[in-house]
Amino acid sequence: MNSNVITILSTKGGVGKSTLARFLSIVAAENEKKVCIIDTCQNSSIATGFLQHRDSFEKNAFDWLTGEAKPSEVIQRFEESNIYYIPSDERIDDFGEWVSKKIPRVKQLQYFNEKIEPLQSLFDFIIIDSHPSENSDIVNYSIAASDYCLIPSEVDLDSKLAVLRCVEIIREYQNAGYNLDYGIIFNKVELNKAKAKNQKRSIQDELCSSGIPEEKFIGDIRYSSTVSACKNEGILLHNVENKYAKNIMNDFRKVGLELFRKLGGDA
Known about the structure:
Blueprint: E1 4-8, H1 17-30, E2 35-39, H2 45-49, H3 61-65, H4 71-74, E3 76-77, E4 83-86, H5 95-102, H6 108-116, E5 125-129, H7 137-144, E6 148-153, H8 157-175, E7 181-189, H9 194-209, E8 217-222, H10 225-232, H11 243-262
Parallel strand pairs: 1-5, 1-6, 2-4, 2-5, 6-7, 7-8
Antiparallel strand pairs: 3-4
């Protein structure tokens, strides 16, 4: 088994990267696939999203990436599921500096990929929750290690510009010979409001006119305060029995299954 490596990518914060990473893993697990999420953000939203405090882990992603911990020491399992994750903390922001000092320049861009390779025989999917900045070295290491970049976008001008920049970065890697594909998901869309749906369609048309093929848009996730309410209350959304939670989970399922289809296998 050789897993697909997916980076959740955006140069803009607040678009729902960590939420998307978690719920894609839930969809994959529902379909009997084994997933590992690697958190490369200092706030460790992956751990908190699975109701764990980031400071509760003795070792985490930084220790693993710098050779101070084995994978078995940092990989955490979510309940009794097929979902695993490697948490992070604020030290991850120092990883780029560590690489620049410890790894020869010619090997730096491939270093993260070399760390991930031993995990690929263990999981069907490896999902990297990336830092919201194009200037972070670990973002570039993540892209270089990936087969696919998934770009979440809200329905606004700043998010549209972030999508364009992400696609530009991905094309730079493609032009350099990397076998890398991408897709775009609109997140927090008010699907029950005609004005919001029209605005989303207008932004999508503008992105297409900028050279992004229509087939790169793989689905929409509706907006609901239920998502943030569940997190604030320490409840996992997919266990909530109300129509809003079910609608959102169904959106994630549609998007997830379409993504898995594009990656060449049914989840």
